[in-house]
């Protein structure tokens, strides 16, 4: 369904290689005729007292208003008295689920060639609640918070995602044999939601077994949903299965229908400003954003052009064993459109 009324989306080019790979996205989207107007926002050099962070209130308002955005990597400045950029975005925009598709790219050889799974990570609580303290000297405590509300919300998102993306199975990843109360509640919520989706197969897999299965045969999995820390670890493991940081996209889902897509990697200061960065992860994140906007035709077209460029092997960036610059690789993708 291609629409002709332009959609406004927020773009955070970010730091380091961010502006270079954001330029690549703009170029590819323009060439593909995607009806998007970018509203660009940069990380400020001063702390905004309204957000206690280097992200300004106006930047956050832009995402809230547009409900959709694309984010490059951000390097959190060192020093006291401010919140980390990613934490600010997550809290202020209520980004409760992190979605990472993980699939083998045809033509780019890795250990596996049939990976096609999605990890969905609860993003607001669990072990990341920031509740750590010393009980007495030599004894510290960290609280893992699991709530019915957040568990139902992420489970509902996972099943809805499975249903609307032609997926057949949802696996809840847990350690409820040990964390009986917390992971127990998480599973209970997943089971409740599963009942509303009889067409989707539901299973529960203990996390240690899940790791073993993932490295032995990742094709066993379809959609995985899990609490925060497990999601952090498993999603990086899965990125490693298909070729690493330069290729892996993600999207953060917030309340009120907000979607903020972002590459998984950081600002890569070692190669910044040298026209060497691989823009694939940010481009594929942009493709996720287009799918979220139901611009499926353009999403598919851009996705194919990226895959074909990498598969052809003539233009590849250094991280994929090639010698192309960011701009040459981008031009090759545009030529494939
Ligand atoms: P990094 O991901 O920036 O770099 C790790 C290695 O991967 C480097 O050798 C880098 O050159 C390479 N790499 C990463 N992305 C690449 C790409 N697109 N193309 C080619 N090579 C690529 O991780 P880091 O060095 O640990 O972190 C650097 C900075 O990024 C830190 O300030 C960190 O806080 C920040 N960071 C931000 C995010 C985010 O905004 N989501 C995520 C991770 C790290």
TrEMBL record:
Transmembrane segments: none annotated. The keyword Transit peptide applies. Residues 8-333 form the Isopropylmalate dehydrogenase-like domain. This is Isopropylmalate dehydrogenase-like domain-containing protein. GO terms for molecular function: metal ion binding; oxidoreductase activity, acting on the CH-OH group of donors, NAD or NADP as acceptor. Heterooligomer of catalytic and regulatory subunits. PROSITE patterns: IDH_IMDH. One of its GO terms (biological process) is tricarboxylic acid cycle. The lineage of its organism: Eukaryota, Viridiplantae, Streptophyta, Embryophyta, Tracheophyta. It comes from the Eukaryota. Its cofactor is Mg(2+); Mn(2+). Belongs to the isocitrate and isopropylmalate dehydrogenases family. Keywords: Magnesium, Metal-binding, NAD, Oxidoreductase, Transit peptide.
């Amino acid at each position: 369904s291609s629409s002709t009324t332009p959609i406004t989306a927020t773009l955070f080019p970010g730091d380091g290689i961010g502006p270079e790979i954001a330029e690549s996205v703009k170029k590819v989207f323009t060439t593909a005729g995607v009806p998007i107007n970018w509203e660009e926002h940069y990380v400020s050099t001063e702390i905004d007292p309204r957000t206690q962070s280097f992200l300004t209130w106006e930047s956050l308002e832009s995402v809230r208003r547009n409900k959709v955005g694309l984010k490059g990597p951000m390097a959190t400045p060192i020093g006291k008295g401010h919140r980390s950029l990613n934490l600010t975005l997550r809290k202020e925009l209520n980004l409760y689920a992190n979605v990472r598709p993980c699939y083998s790219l045809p033509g780019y050889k890795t250990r596996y060639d049939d990976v096609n799974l999605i990890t969905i990570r609860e993003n607001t609580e669990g072990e990341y609640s920031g509740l750590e303290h010393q009980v007495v000297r030599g004894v510290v405590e960290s609280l893992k918070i699991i709530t019915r509300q957040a568990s139902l919300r992420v489970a509902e998102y996972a099943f809805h995602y499975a249903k609307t993306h032609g997926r057949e199975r949802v696996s809840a990843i847990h350690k409820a044999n040990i964390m009986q109360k917390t992971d127990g509640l998480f599973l209970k919520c997943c089971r409740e939601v599963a009942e509303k989706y009889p067409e989707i197969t539901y299973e529960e897999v203990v996390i240690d077994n899940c790791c073993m299965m993932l490295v032995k045969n990742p094709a066993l999995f379809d959609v995985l949903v899990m609490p925060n820390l497990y999601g952090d670890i498993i999603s990086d493991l899965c990125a490693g299965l298909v070729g690493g940081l330069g290729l892996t996209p993600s999207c953060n889902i917030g309340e009120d229908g907000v979607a903020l897509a972002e590459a998984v990697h950081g600002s890569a200061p070692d190669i910044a400003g040298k026209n060497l960065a691989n823009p694939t992860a940010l481009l594929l994140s942009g493709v996720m954003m287009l799918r979220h906007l139901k611009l499926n035709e353009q999403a598919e077209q851009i996705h194919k052009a990226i895959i074909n460029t990498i598969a052809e092997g003539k233009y590849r960036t250094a991280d994929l064993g090639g010698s192309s610059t960011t701009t040459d690789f981008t031009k090759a993708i545009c030529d494939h459109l």
